[in-house]
UniProtKB/TrEMBL annotation:
<comment type="subunit">
    <text>Component of the exocyst complex.</text>
</comment>
<dbReference type="Pfam" id="PF01833">
    <property type="entry name" value="TIG"/>
</dbReference>
<dbReference type="GO" id="GO:0006887">
    <property type="term" value="P:exocytosis"/>
</dbReference>
<comment type="similarity">
    <text>Belongs to the SEC5 family.</text>
</comment>
<dbReference type="InterPro" id="IPR029175">
    <property type="entry name" value="EXOC2/Sec5"/>
</dbReference>
<dbReference type="InterPro" id="IPR014756">
    <property type="entry name" value="Ig_E-set"/>
</dbReference>
<dbReference type="GO" id="GO:0000145">
    <property type="term" value="C:exocyst"/>
</dbReference>
<keyword id="KW-0268">Exocytosis</keyword>
<protein>
    <recommendedName>
        <fullName>Exocyst complex component 2</fullName>
    </recommendedName>
</protein>
<dbReference type="GO" id="GO:0015031">
    <property type="term" value="P:protein transport"/>
</dbReference>
<keyword id="KW-0813">Transport</keyword>
<dbReference type="InterPro" id="IPR013783">
    <property type="entry name" value="Ig-like_fold"/>
</dbReference>
<feature type="region of interest" description="Disordered">
    <location>
        <begin position="1"/>
        <end position="23"/>
    </location>
</feature>
<dbReference type="InterPro" id="IPR039481">
    <property type="entry name" value="EXOC2/Sec5_N_dom"/>
</dbReference>
<feature type="domain" description="IPT/TIG">
    <location>
        <begin position="4"/>
        <end position="86"/>
    </location>
</feature>
<dbReference type="GO" id="GO:0006893">
    <property type="term" value="P:Golgi to plasma membrane transport"/>
</dbReference>
<dbReference type="InterPro" id="IPR002909">
    <property type="entry name" value="IPT_dom"/>
</dbReference>
């Protein structure tokens, strides 16, 4: 245990015997633990009263030297203590009048010797023989050199001589410079030798004049505010010089300096110059005080001393001579008294009082016999009068039970408590039977009143002020238990019951069929909510409403504002109240979070025990919960923000913070998942209404619907889920959440690719059943809708749908995806470059697949019809036919490609070049294969084949590729040069004729013709 330490004193100064209240730390464990208590160095343990480890009451002892001092407490357990304040002790004796300071030291068994940080001041007050004193005063001081006028610290000079030099006395300023830490006070601890320079001289001054010494009245007139006392704060040296008595009227004896004390000690090692000392040396005294006196002066002094001694010897004898008659009269009176006493003893014996006592007793008995009836009636009347007086005097107590009942009915509880406190203070320890019986009845009424207040205290809901008021009443009524803590505990239990009742009610409503539900239970705005959402809203609202009352009551209890008795804390042997209250808050917040998790986040309770899951209830499967998750999150965050207003510690809010974090992550994932499902089903919303754009071609509203749905989801998640309030954690600070949102975003963007694939698959399945058998005119143009319609309805043909899907996919990659990337940046999502890159690759994969399917669907009929058309009409390259123009199969092939051009251009002009390039390559490849099958081209066959190849190459020159050139070279490799120049001219003429005849059709294959057509 630490040493005692005194830090406060009340009062801080006083006289010996003053009762001092000592306050500090570690001042012992009991009265027996105290070993010592010193005030200003004086032991005061016998006056000490131990109250607590921080309070001791003691009386200051008899301090001979007034001073400030510490109060030191020493205990067995803590040892000697310390002190931070000081106590001033007044010295009540004649010779000491200098105030000083001292410590107050406490010593205990447990802590040892203590310390002190304050001091006690000893006040100065001189007392006389008749003054009262709280401490013992040494009477040896009285009668010795008692000051009459100016006080004399040394005894009177018995020789009435002076040894005063002609040198002036030292000024005080010079003495202070010589002895900065000394004092001229003979009783001061700093006094050594310098006191001789200051005290010896003024006490032996003589009046140089021959007149009498100055009267005191004249000195008071001269110095109204001064004093001749050398120790006084208003000391006047002139007063002392004028007042000092020199009965011998001797002049200065010598100018020789005084003997030093050291020299005298060397001459008389065992002597002393003090007249009162037992080792008094006259020679020392004469050398010290009169070493410069003349022999005649010493004779005169001796004569004075003899006269003084003779005066003292004659004093009692002179008193007797002057009072002889009075002494004789006293002796005669005493002799007469002795003679009368002996006479009575002879007559009556030594027991002189017995006859008188018997006579008095007999007279008393006769008097009682004469007045017995009268006295009996008087006693009865007195008893009645006394009873009425008692009833009148104590009517408060006798009327108190009825007054208590009346005031309780009126609700005037303050009056009930006031009356009870008054009765308890007056009659609690009474021994009067009537009073005890009435007081017991009062106690019974008060006990019922306590039960009523406790019952009202448990009635909930209630306001904090009302509960504080009831607790105050119960504490004032001295309820045995701790009503304040009972109130806090009951609030916790009641709040848990409210949460459980809310859970049971909503589970019952969720389990009931829609027909049996009562629509009046919820407001019209909440009737469309899922039951779990209604439960979360209702639960958080009730928690927000009732939890602040519990928190404020707990804080009022812990801060002492709830009228707590001191004994309640001491009697609590369990955990400290602040730990218990913290556990209460943790319990209710955990229950709230667990109930919310069970309703909307059951997968997060995997670590909860089976018993705990049973207490949380079982919720039926809830559909359509995803759109309401932001609403649930808003309710939970509102509850959290209200708790923040209570200034709760962060550790008490951690459970609710984690719930908000988990709900945010779950809501984000669920909203992204729901949006992905909606985007996958966008194929059902396709209207096939095409809008033509020179840059993007023909597109429908489907890519814009996809973009709007994604942007709407990003905005909704940002505004309702990702917004962080005070003390909420940003979910994107965790790596796993960033990975989850990137995965969800990739699924969200990839869902549209799945929708396009579904549409393409539906077109492919339909094509297997319905073949395109209708030739379409290239001149057909329709604005804002497809130009290729089915026979049965207004939908475009399958080929047109395939082109529209390709155009939508291309538009998504070029325009929609970059805008969505900007949206991710705008709404402060993590870096989505990898997600955008992966999604773009997915759309390109779908586009390539659709393009290959469309080209294959368009190439197969054209390529498959070339060979039959080439050999139509039993055509043979070996027969001699005169060439009259380009072969019909070439013209038909060109017309087929014009049809493809028209179909693609009507839907998506940017796809024309890409589609025709693939178709031309397939056609030329087929022609190269057919030419390879012919063994030899001779004559007209060579001319016709050359004309056909040149016509086709010139018509489709805008769509040639390296593969196409290779195939054309293969075809020309089978041909032979013309031996006759006329054959070449014929080919040129026929080719020119072909171009003139089909200039309009061939114009669509020119690059500049894409816009002019």
């Amino acid at each position: 245990m630490e040493p005692p330490k005194v830090t406060g004193l009340s009062p801080k100064e006083g006289e010996p015997g003053t009762k001092v209240t000592i306050r500090g730390e570690n001042l012992g464990t009991s009265q027996r633990d105290l070993l010592s208590l010193s005030i200003c160095g004086v032991e005061c343990l016998m006056y000490a009263e131990w109250h607590s480890p921080s309070k001791i009451v003691a009386r200051c002892g008899a301090v001979r030297v007034p001073q400030y001092g510490d109060v030191i407490v020493t205990t067995k357990s803590g040892g000697k203590g310390t002190c931070t304040v000081q106590f001033k002790v007044s010295v009540r004796c004649i010779a000491v009048r200098v105030p000083q300071y001292g410590d107050v030291i406490v010593t205990t068994k447990s802590g040892g010797k203590g310390t002190c940080t304050v001091q006690f001041k000893v006040s100065v007050r001189c007392i006389g023989l008749t003054d009262e004193s709280a401490v013992w005063v040494d009477e040896s001081w009285f009668g010795k050199n008692r000051p009459t006028s100016p006080s004399q610290l040394y005894p009177d000079d018995p020789l009435r001589l002076s040894d005063e030099s002609s040198v002036e006395r030292f000024p005080t300023a010079e003495l202070l410079e010589l002895f900065p830490e000394g004092s001229g006070d003979i009783l001061s601890q700093e006094n050594i030798v310098e006191s001789q320079l200051y005290l010896d001289i003024p006490l032996r001054l003589s009046d140089k004049s021959s007149g009498e010494r100055f009267p005191t009245t004249e000195l008071l007139e001269l110095f109204p505010e001064g004093s001749g006392d050398i120790l006084s704060q208003v000391f006047e040296p002139t007063w002392s010089q004028l007042y000092m008595d020199n009965p011998l009227r001797l002049s200065d004896e010598s100018s020789v300096e005084r003997f030093l004390t050291a020299e005298l000690l060397a001459l008389f090692p065992e002597g002393s110059g003090d007249i009162l000392s037992q080792v008094f040396e006259p020679t020392w005294y004469l050398l010290e005080n009169h070493h410069g006196a003349r022999f005649d002066d010493l004779k005169t002094g001796l004569a004075f001393l003899r006269r003084k001694v003779s005066t003292h010897d004659e004093g009692p004898l002179a008193f007797m001579k002057s009072n002889v008659s009075s002494v004789v009269s006293c002796l005669e009176a005493l002799e007469a008294l002795r003679a009368a006493l002996e006479k009575d003893v002879q007559a009556l014996g030594w027991d002189l009082a017995t006859p008188a006592e018997q006579a008095v007793q007999k007279a008393r008995e006769e008097a009682f016999g004469l007045f017995e009836e009268t006295l009996a009636r008087k006693e009865k009347a007195d008893a009645t009068r006394n009873a009425l007086g008692v009833l009148q005097r104590y009517r408060f107590l006798f009327n108190l039970p009825a007054n208590i009942e009346k005031n309780i009915r009126k609700g005037d509880y303050e009056m009930v408590i006031t009356d009870y406190a008054r009765a308890r203070s007056l009659f609690h320890d009474t021994e009067v039977t009537v009073f005890k019986r009435v007081y017991q009845e009062v106690e019974q009424r008060i006990e019922k009143f306590r039960e009523t207040l406790l019952r009202k205290l448990k009635e909930q809901p209630s306001t904090v002020d009302e509960q504080k008021r009831l607790v105050k009443f119960l504490v004032n009524l001295e309820t045995p238990s701790d009503p304040a803590w009972q109130c806090v505990s009951h609030n916790k239990s009641w709040l848990l019951s409210v949460l459980n009742e809310t859970k049971d009610k909503h589970i019952a409503l969720a389990s009931a069929s829609p027909e049996t539900r009562d629509p009046s239970v919820f407001a019209p705005a909440h009737q469309d909510m899922p039951c779990a959402v209604k439960f979360v809203v209702d639960l958080t609202e009730k928690f927000t409403e009732h939890f602040p009352n519990m928190w404020r009551l707990g804080q009022a209890y812990l801060t002492g504002q709830l009228h707590i008795r001191e004994s309640s804390e001491a009697s609590d042997k369990g955990f400290p109240k602040h730990i218990q209250f913290k556990n209460m808050v943790h319990e209710v917040t955990v229950r709230l979070c667990s109930l919310v998790r069970m309703s909307i986040l059951p997968e997060t309770l995997h670590s909860t025990s089976v018993h705990q899951l049973q207490t949380l209830g079982t919720w039926p499967k809830c559909e359509g919960l995803t759109p309401w998750l932001p609403y649930c999150l808003r309710s939970i965050r509102n509850c959290f923000s209200n708790l923040l207003k209570l200034e709760m510690p962060d550790d008490m809010l951690s459970t609710l913070q984690q719930l908000i974090f988990d709900v945010k992550v779950h809501a984000m994932k669920t909203l992204f998942s729901q949006a992905s499902q909606d985007i996958q089903n966008l194929d059902e919303r396709e209207t096939w209404v095409v809008e033509i754009d020179d840059i993007n071609g023909g597109t429908t509203q489907l890519p814009l619907l996809f973009e709007n749905r994604v942007v709407e989801t990003l905005q909704l998640v940002r505004e309702t889920v990702l917004m962080c309030g005070p003390k909420e954690t940003d979910i994107f600070l965790q790596i796993n959440v960033q990975a989850a949102v990137k995965q969800s975003s990739q699924s969200l963007l990839g869902a549209f690719a799945l929708a396009l694939e579904k549409m393409a698959q539906a077109v492919s399945n339909k094509e297997n059943d319905n073949k395109l058998n209708k030739q379409l005119s290239p001149r057909m143009t329709l604005l804002n809708q497809s130009m290729f319609m089915d026979d049965d309805n207004d939908d475009p043909s399958d080929d047109a749908k395939c082109l529209i899907i390709l155009s939508n996919c291309s538009f998504t990659v070029k325009s929609v995806i970059p805008r969505l990337q900007d949206a991710f940046i705008k709404y402060v999502y993590p870096d989505m470059q990898l997600v955008i890159k992966s999604s773009t690759g997915r759309f390109q994969e779908v586009s390539a697949k659709l393009f290959s399917s469309y080209v294959e669907r368009k190439c197969d009929p054209v390529v498959g019809s070339i060979e039959p058309r080439m050999y139509a009409g039993s055509f043979n390259w070996e027969l001699e036919y005169k060439s009259t123009g380009v072969s019909p199969y070439i013209k038909q092939t060109i017309m087929d490609m014009i049809e493809i051009h028209s179909e693609v251009f009507a839907v998506s002009p940017p796809l024309v070049s890409k589609v025709l390039t693939r178709v031309v390559e397939a056609v030329v490849e087929e022609l190269a294969r057919l030419h390879e099958c012919v063994d030899n081209y001779e004559g007209n066959a060579n001319i016709q084949a050359t004309l056909n190849i040149r016509a086709l190459e010139d018509a489709l020159s805008a769509f040639k590729t390296s593969n196409t050139n290779k195939y054309f070279m293969t075809c020309r490799g089978k041909l032979k040069p013309f031996p006759n120049p006329k054959d070449a001219e014929l080919v040129n003429d026929l080719l020119k004729t072909f171009k003139n005849q089909m200039w309009l059709q061939l114009l669509c294959f020119k690059e500049e013709g894409f816009v002019t057509v």
